[in-house]
Amino acid sequence: MSLRQRLAGGLLALAACSTLGATEVEKKNYRLYCMGCHQLDGAGSPVNGIPAMRDQVGHFLRAPGGRAYLSQVPGTLNTPLGDKDTAALLNWVLVNIGRGSLPADFTPYSADEVARYRASVPEDVPGLRARLMDYLERQERGR
Ligand code: HEC
Predict the structure, then answer these.
(1) What is the average pLDDT score of the chain?
(2) CA of 74 to the centre of ligand 1 (A)
(3) How many other β-carbons are positioned within 10 Å of the β-carbon of residue 132?
(4) Which residue's CA is minimally distant from atom 39 of ligand 1?
(5) Is there an atom of ligand 1 within 6 Å of 128 CB?
(6) pLDDT at 142
(7) Which terminal CB of the chain, N or C, has fewer other CB atoms within 10 Å?
(8) Which of 13-22, 76-85, 88-97 has the lowest mean pLDDT?
């Protein structure tokens, strides 16, 4: 292969990379930063304290404070990703992994919103989760 051909091949590969769809980026970020604990399909490992997100995680959006919570758990909080990429990743998780639980009126997270939640993380995040679960369970039982 001539140098010219190799160069052309390299340029083609570069072009292919830069046209990766947005969803591909989120998928890649999920694999890099979340899958180790949450598993590819979001099943998690409940016996080891990793909650199942598949068709579940969207329910948090129905509880007061739940929207902030999803953006304040350590996994979402501590990625090396900026607010914009984190918002996109969270939206991807909700729409794909959480599909069956997503409220019909779901509004995607914006970068500004994620920045705000990140700047105001409550001290007791596990306590917040327990309160949200309690709220959702009571709602489900119709009380
Ligand atoms: C080191 C393991 C680990 C990694 C990595 C991780 N998480 Fe989590 N995640 C957890 C645990 C454990 C919880 C349960 C809440 C808690 O105890 O903090 C959780 C809870 C969540 C929740 C709330 C769901 C619920 O049922 O409470 C969301 C949303 C979430 N993680 C998203 C992510 C995203 C997005 C990433 C990747 C950027 C990620 N997590 C990476 C362990 C992890």
Answers:
(1) 90
(2) 7
(3) 19
(4) 75
(5) no
(6) 83
(7) C
(8) 13-22
CB 132 near ligand 1, within 6 Å? no
What's the confidence (pLDDT) of residue 134?
Answer: 97
What pLDDT is attached to residue 140?
Answer: 87
Q: Give me the long-range contacts of 63-66 (CB less than 8 A, separation at least 24).
A: 63/132, 63/135, 63/136, 63/139, 64/135, 65/128, 65/131, 65/132, 66/132
Amino acid at position 78, single letter: N
Rounded CA-CA distance 7/52 in Å is 46
How far away, in angstroms, is 3 Cα from ligand 1 center? 47
Query: What is the token pair recorded at 83?
Result: 């607010």
Identify the residue whose tokens are 């993380």: 121
Name the residue at shortest CA distance from atom 26 of ligand 1. 51
15/22 Cα distance (integer angstroms): 15
- Cα–Cα distance, 81 to 85 (Å, whole number): 6
User: What does the alpha-carbon distance between residue 23 and residue 93 come to, in Å, rounded to a whole number?
Assistant: 11
Task: Decide if 110 contacts 87 (C-beta within 8 A).
Answer: yes
| Token pair belonging to 79 | 């990625």
